[in-house]
Design goal:
412 residues; Four Helix Bundle (Hemerythrin (Met), subunit A); 4-stranded mixed beta sheet; 7% strand; globular
Length: 412
């Protein structure tokens, strides 16, 4: 460990360098390397993921007493906004554009050991290191910096789509739940005070927030599995998605964000966070509708107009809109499930001697077993869609992880 004492003026210069240096690096790499469009999109995704995760992980570090930052200028929730942005730029597009063919761990490990391991505890008053700061450094790199570089790498190569969609969901959740409300409270006033309210109000808020979370995550999952793309228009789906939550509402992502801000604002008793839901409406009226006219309509000229005529942007239907009926092949028995499915829209139930199997002409992927039964329940009504969709999110994620794990034969 190097024990140095730098004057405060130099620390201020270092703070600005941590913001401007990464930005200059990214601009230079984009110019020198003549990066492809997908590489630049990957860099943007890595930056956005980094902003959300660096903000959240540094808040955790502050509460865990791993470290805290000094000064009061440009602070957001006791964190320097310039360092958050600079870190997201550096440990995202900056390092990936500079070392595109190097594994992210190999990029970050020398920085962890060589830089943080030598001078981190000597950077007062920029940062005051706590007794367990090395644990915090590993935590931040493992959850924020290394995944951000992987996100850029996988986006450029168009690989690992489920993992990319999961990381984009984490990024979006971090922005909606943490970054945007913190910015609003910084500008307009208010405090988090999550534990200052009664347990009953906290439980009620959690239940109410679960509904829009299911809507948003279910939409993300559908776009990945059935659309073959991400929820971000810069990396769009390859197929038009009209099933699942999209059979009930055409803008589930924006609906999810708007409801989250309404509930979160009501819980925090902050009218300005509630007003942020208007941002989602404005976004739909402007950017989303522009995207629909200039992208979806051109890519799906046959399916999109009919879909838009039957599925609203904001008001979910009670029954799904299904153009062509799906089929659930169900083993003998399951009397209760069959009774529930009698009221399903656009679903045929047939008997089979094998495992349950769901197939839909509008989808690119079929489902088997429990996933098939849950997907069929999405045809009943919006309430069943929320229940079944909420169960499908962890179930399909677990199935993906299980497929990625090595088999016993490979281990042997």
């Amino acid at each position: 460990m190097i024990d140095i004492v730098l004057p405060e003026a130099m620390m201020l210069a270092l703070r600005w360098a941590l913001l401007l240096g990464p930005i200059v690096l990214v601009i230079a790499m984009v110019h020198l390397r003549q990066l492809s469009r997908r590489a630049q999109i990957g860099g943007l995704f890595a930056f956005l993921y980094g902003v959300a995760m660096v903000f959240i992980t540094h808040i955790i570090a502050d509460h865990a007493n791993w470290w805290r930052f000094g000064w009061d200028a440009l602070m957001l929730n006791r964190l320097p906004a310039d360092i958050i942005i600079g870190g997201a730029v550096l440990f995202g597009p900056g390092l990936y554009f500079t070392f595109p063919n190097t594994r992210p761990l190999m990029i970050c490990l020398p920085i962890i050991v060589g830089l943080h391991g030598t001078i981190f505890s000597s950077l007062e008053p920029l940062v005051y290191a706590g007794p367990y700061w090395p644990l915090g450094i590993v935590f931040v790199f493992a959850t924020s910096h290394i995944p951000a570089i992987y996100l850029a790498k996988w986006t450029q190569a168009d690989t690992h789509l489920p993992l990319r969609c999961a990381m984009l969901a984490i990024m979006t959740g971090g922005m909606i739940f943490a970054v945007v409300p913190s910015l609003i409270m910084q500008a307009m006033g208010g405090t988090w005070g999550l534990l200052d309210r009664s347990a009953a109000s906290l439980a009620l808020a959690a239940v109410l927030l679960a509904i829009p979370c299911v809507i948003g995550l279910s939409a993300n999952q559908s776009l990945c599995l059935q659309g073959g793309g991400t929820p971000i228009p810069l990396d769009p789906t390859k197929r038009l998605v009209r099933s699942g939550i999209y059979a009930y509402v055409s803008n589930p992502m924006q609906l999810s964000a708007a409801v989250i801000w309404l509930v979160l604002g009501a819980y925090l008793q902050n009218i300005w966070i509630m007003a942020a839901s208007v941002m989602a409406w404005v976004f739909v009226q402007g950017m989303v509708r522009w995207h629909h006219r200039h992208d979806l309509l051109k890519r799906f000229p046959e399916g999109w107009p009919e879909y838009k005529e039957n599925v609203a942007e904001w008001r979910p239907r009670w029954s799904p809109w299904v153009k062509e009926p799906a089929t659930l092949y169900l083993p003998v028995g399951h009397a209760q499930l069959k009774r529930i499915l009698r009221g399903a829209t656009g679903l045929q139930v047939e008997s089979t001697n094998g495992a349950a199997h769901y197939t839909n002409p509008a989808d690119a992927r079929d489902f088997h077993g429990a996933a098939a039964c849950l997907t069929a329940l999405c045809h009943v009504n919006f309430a069943w869609m929320l229940l079944a969709g909420g169960a499908l999110i962890p179930l399909l994620a677990a199935q993906y992880v299980r497929r990625r794990l090595p088999t016993k034969s490979r281990i042997a």
